[in-house]
Recover the amino acids of this structure.
């Protein structure tokens, strides 16, 4: 949601899809409107190919093209459990959910960007992709998202489409909101290799 603010230009229309009603997203839309821009929200289940394609088709029908695609899906999953202690079903939740949603949204957006030979796709990962800590399936999911971004960058670069993967570090405010990351400050994290 906050990712939209730095990119707001009054002459552009911004579309901010979400899966459910999200009050913070409404605040961002209002902020964009107050700066002279235009923003719309749409409800999309990023795990359903038909909804992703229908949403992007509607965006292109209204705006004419897609400039930037960012998927910031959140997944409620078991956290902080070592791989040796987590059941397979719990391990697979973040792996399947993150990779499926990122694949669906990025490839659907790319199909609209290829004819224009222009566009940018941004993936979001975390340091869980490269540090050793009890990250259940989340670390594996982040590593898979980074590999997907790298693969798409190689495929789409010749078509003029930029693919990047942002790996921000821990967000301090999340610990205050109950995130499991509040316990990681008490022990050093180790990067393999």
């Amino acid at each position: 949601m906050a990712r939209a603010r730095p990119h707001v230009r009054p002459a552009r229309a911004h579309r901010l899809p979400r899966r459910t009603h999200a009050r913070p997203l409404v605040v961002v839309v209002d902020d964009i409107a107050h700066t002279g821009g235009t923003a719309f929200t749409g409800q999309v289940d990023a795990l359903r190919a038909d909804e992703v394609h229908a949403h992007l088709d509607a965006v292109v029908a209204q705006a004419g093209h897609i400039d930037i695609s960012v998927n910031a899906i959140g997944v409620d999953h078991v956290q902080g459990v070592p791989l040796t202690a987590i059941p397979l079903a719990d391990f697979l939740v973040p792996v399947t959910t993150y990779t499926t949603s990122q694949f669906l949204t990025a490839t659907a957006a790319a199909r609209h960007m290829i004819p224009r030979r222009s566009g940018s796709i941004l993936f979001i990962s975390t340091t869980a992709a490269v540090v050793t800590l009890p990250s259940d399936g989340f670390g594996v999911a982040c590593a898979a998202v980074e590999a997907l971004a790298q693969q798409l960058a190689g495929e789409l670069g010749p078509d003029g489409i930029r693919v990047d993967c942002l790996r921000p570090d821990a967000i301090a405010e999340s610990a205050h909101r109950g995130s499991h990351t509040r316990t990681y400050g008490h022990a050093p994290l180790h990067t393999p290799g």
User: Anything to note?
Assistant: The first strand starts at residue 13 and ends at 18. Residues 1-11, 185-191 have pLDDT under 50 and may be disordered. Strands lie at 13-18, 38-43, 68-70, 119-124, 161-166. The domain at 66-169 is CATH 3.40.50.720 (Rossmann fold).
